[in-house]
Design a protein that fits this description.
about 200 residues, alpha/beta
Amino acid sequence: MAKVVGILGSPLTEGNTAILLHRALKGAEDAGCTVEEIDVVNLDFEACKEMFFCREHETCIMDDDMQQMYEKIKSADSIILATPVMTMGIPGKLKSFIDRFQVFFMAKYIRNCPLVEKERIGRRRGLFICISGMAVPEVFVGVRLTVQAFFDIIDCKYSDELLINDMDRIRDLSTRCDLLDAAYNKGLMLGRALSRKSDS
């Protein structure tokens, strides 16, 4: 079965962002995929120190939880990344998590030898889920650019998104079944697309 990995970038593992991610993962699971969630806030790792060990090697010289994350991301058939907007960007620990994927950047763009298997690259898709407290223009511009770059580095096509603003007013997602259904359906569509590729 195809595997979908969900990355939770919120510091709240039971907050609104987590609820949306869980709904999307449930959709992918109902489509026949196996799913796994990574809670970035619970990982033990340091920010990238630009030691450039990864320029010549397929891993990072820092031995921490990121070693396991590299393997999980390499073996995933698709990724769902969910995060809130914080100060017009993404939470600090999620940014540090993404920065540590210089391992993939160096392999792909410097050594011309991507870490993701060729046969897997063609079917990998990325779904981006993001919420913002404010309802202001361009609130998602910065976070989208960061996530697009991340998906590109890990050879996962940015294929869909669910962006929800005005959460300072909405606050409780349990009152918005339409948004919960939207997250579920995004995951379901992602999972069905993977299932079709697996059958072909």
